[in-house]
Amino acid sequence: MAAVVETSRAGPAEAAPGGAGIGLREVTPPWAPGADLLGHSHQGRPISLYRVGNPRATRTVVVVGSLHGSEPAGIPIALGLTAMTAPPGVRLVVVPTANPDGDALRRRQNARGVDLNRNFPGGVHRSTPGDTYYPGPRDLSEVESRLMAGLLAELRPAALVVYHQAMNLVDHCGGDPALTRRYAAETGMRAVRLPRYPGSMATWLHGAQPACTILTVELPARVSATVRSRHRTAVLRLAARVGAA
Ligand SMILES: [Zn+2]
User: Fold this and answer.
1) List of the chain residues with pLDDT < 70
2) Centroid of ligand 1 to alpha carbon of 100 (angstroms)
């Protein structure tokens, strides 16, 4: 638990991932109080974590707003969830961004040029620095992926929702496909199964925790406030279904 009990030393403005780069004024409601510090990125930016709902709930749903810095649309969706009410029996754990350096640099990779979504255990470390999908020198070589892997191993969530862009679909990556289909229907997206990418957060988690329902939500390139709200509602409904299971 050590990774998540450290109280944030950063104020709301400092904790904002990506600074002005992601349009924080769009975020509604603004930063919720009560962030904990999961850890720091390679360049020292805070990676914040919010708990929503009864901490003693037996089921956990984890939401990751962003893993790729060039795909920030999920961040305001995740932040909005931090001020909402979790359904009974479930707690939400929200990480608005797992890659604040990438957000600040507005690029897919982290500050070391590593695609974090190829750096989880099971990655194939053949490509070289500078490649789009460079997986790093070895599994979990990056502090950001180590923090997320540690969190997910500790929490053992019933469901994980990770936001990306911009394919406009929901990729079912593990667990109960009916939950993925419902989420997709409620957000007006297609539910599909993309190839499993070695070293991705979803591929690793599915192997490690096969019961976890894993949704990779590929948002479209542009996401309106209405669509953000729809996704928050879909997350809460998913959480309610998981909590009632
Ligand atoms: Zn992505």
Assistant:
1) 1-33
2) 14
